[in-house]
Amino acid sequence: MAEAREATDVAQDEDTGPDLASFLAHAAARVDAELDRRLPTVADCGDLAAAMRHLVTGGGKRFRPALVLLACRDVGGSEDDAIATAAAMELIHTYSLIHDDLPCMDDAKLRRGKACVHVAYPEATAVLAGDAMLTLAFEVIAAGTPAHRPIGGMIVALGRAAGWAGMAGGQVLDLAAEGAEPDLDMVRRIHEGKTASLIEVSLRLGAMAGGGGGEDVERLARYGHRVGLAFQIVDDLLDTEVSAEQMGKDVGADADNDKLTWPGVVGNEQARADARRLVDEALVDARGGREEALLAALAEKVLSRRN
Amino acid sequence: MAEAREATDVAQDEDTGPDLASFLAHAAARVDAELDRRLPTVADCGDLAAAMRHLVTGGGKRFRPALVLLACRDVGGSEDDAIATAAAMELIHTYSLIHDDLPCMDDAKLRRGKACVHVAYPEATAVLAGDAMLTLAFEVIAAGTPAHRPIGGMIVALGRAAGWAGMAGGQVLDLAAEGAEPDLDMVRRIHEGKTASLIEVSLRLGAMAGGGGGEDVERLARYGHRVGLAFQIVDDLLDTEVSAEQMGKDVGADADNDKLTWPGVVGNEQARADARRLVDEALVDARGGREEALLAALAEKVLSRRN
Q1: Which regions of chain B are under pLDDT 50?
Q2: What pTM value is reported for the model?
Q3: Contacts of B52 in chain A (CB under 8 A)
């Protein structure tokens, strides 16, 4: 499934070279197998397991796991050292989607081309599935990372990126800013918290799991921060431009929910220029390790993506 | 606040000896200071911080943190090694209360004598405050436990206890069992998941943080499992017996929500006998370390508590 999906993505995207396409397909297949191994089955815990697997098995670009593996390779590590962390980042990303889609937040119905978890299952099960996936993410990193890697430091970094100082804090700001006056500083803080922090920490954890030194870890984290911010700016642009069928989720939702968006503050043209500049900066940080070409190609793909 | 509150608890409870009373007051004061140090402030993240602090600063017996510190002392460790874990267990417990009280779950209004978080703040903020507290718990253990302790193993144990195999799974079973035929095996699984697993892991993590050997860790975990199950049976009994004012939360809620409870299956008299037997078994596991007297007194207090 994952390979077929990624192959389709790639075929639609003329800017993606063959090396990146095959790496992404490889990364998606590896992380899908790891997720299947780490997630409970219906025999373990019934509907809770089904709800936890609902979105994970429903597609997704596996962008964050690919970044984890790429950062690990960039510092000379083996993918085996980082595959658990790669799966954990997809668990965290998916938990955040499940909770963000809840009726009390974005009240979405469609995600990754299928019903949201709280639509397909009771709302309480959706909340608890998200809780259990967040919990499992920390467990999987601790259980699956070699003991000689800095597991404690990785857990601290993930906590900061996913918690009040990162993703959860960004979501609160995002909800509070609905209907607010356009303000670039506020949009930046929301996007840094909601999106860039988790993408940044994907690179950071991959490099740490791969045994990278401090300078490489910080260089890759910077790359991730810039690519992450560009990713969200492009997401805002796509929300205004493409169909729900292409995106596999509700679109135009930002405007419907009166969300503060980057193009909403600076206009579409300037937003495209800002994303380009961030990717150009990321290309500088892509240099210095063993995977410069793939890191550069992935940063460019963020700009050219259509879904 | 904490010391005054615990002193009042103790004065009302004639079965609690002076040593246990002073230990509980001491543990509550230490963990309250640690929580205040670890939680964000309103200057950090506004309403999210206020929502995260709402229930934590609103009382609570600090039962799980006291068990963490006691297990650490029992194996000869310093409380300093386990104080971060003690705070983390209160964060996890509080996050579970916030999510369990949500409209889509127990739809409670009153907790620890004040409005539930989703009543005092927007529902979305309550969901995210719970998410951020769960995230912070893992971060605090990793950041605050000495590096020579088995941090990775502690994170794995906490993940299992709090996630699909433990607390989150128990809550799903609890909701699914509303209105079901009385079934002791099902009630046991719900109580083991929802309550005993977190109390058990409080002992386990405290012993691990204190440098305890495998046998002591397992002995204290067994003590925790039995005390935890007894604690929940007593909770079920109190729900039928005492006033909301005494409990500081909605009572009679189990019957209102058609919950499966231990006394609902076996009757009040047998439930009291079952709790007594579990505490007697725990008293055996209380033997072998440096804090047998306090562990025994705490197990007895679980039976005699009035709130």
Answers
A1: 1-14
A2: 0.92
A3: 164
